[in-house]
Amino acid sequence: MNKRKRKAVIAGNWKMNMTPDEAVAMINELRPLVKGKRGCEIVLCVPAIDIPAAVKAVKGSRIKIGAENVHFEEKGAFTGEISAKMLLTCGVEYVIIGHSERRQYFGETDETVNKRVKAALNAGLKVILCVGEVLAQRDLGITGEVLSMQTKIALQGVTLDQLKNLIIAYEPVWAIGTGRVATPDQADEGNGVVRKTVEALYGKAAAEALTIQYGGSMNEKNAAELLGKYNVDGGLIGGASLVAAKFAAIVDAAQ
Ligand code: PGA
User: Fold this and answer.
1) Domain 9-253: which topology?
2) Ligand 1 pocket, CB under 6 A
């Protein structure tokens, strides 16, 4: 399949950064910079508290707003959690699930990632599912196995039809926030393993149509080379998504 037929998606992951006022200021700066850039979908995944202000600030532009997590239950006694319906009614379109920081610091497992993926897709959210190996796993030579296992468990019970609302982001944990970016070949290889895994589960056509991002220290300088790889259909960007000019330059690289 021609890579150009897949939807390129450049998504920012703000993590625990930006107050609502700062969010609006950044979006106002970004809007003119990405105007008319139709070569990719543009998403900003923002802290929950910023969502209403961010949704309002992107109105009339092509920038979509995403959340950074979602709970798997519809409602109930889950202090501090946010449901898919709450996100949807606030104008959120995307949600990141299974980010390595949630796996590392907040007890997220492949099983809870799977529950969240299903709940989000069933509710009508678009999902950015994160998978990635830690350095010790790469050094052991089991990156492929880790990516395949994380992908398979996360997608249990997800239908072929629901794949159209799913993006997978390959994020080597050792490359996140470290400035140590994967080489374009490593990114392509990791994304390729994810695509092969999806092919085994859903068939070649579905796997070839799937948008698979790379994430981990992607920035305005290395984006073009990473995005040029056959299996890299976009980026999930942390640090560089906090600065409008840098994020816009990555959007440019995806055109
Ligand atoms: P980074 O983060 O770009 O700051 O490495 C990427 C991510 O965590 O999604």
Assistant:
1) TIM Barrel (3.20.20)
2) 13, 171, 176-177, 215-218, 236-240
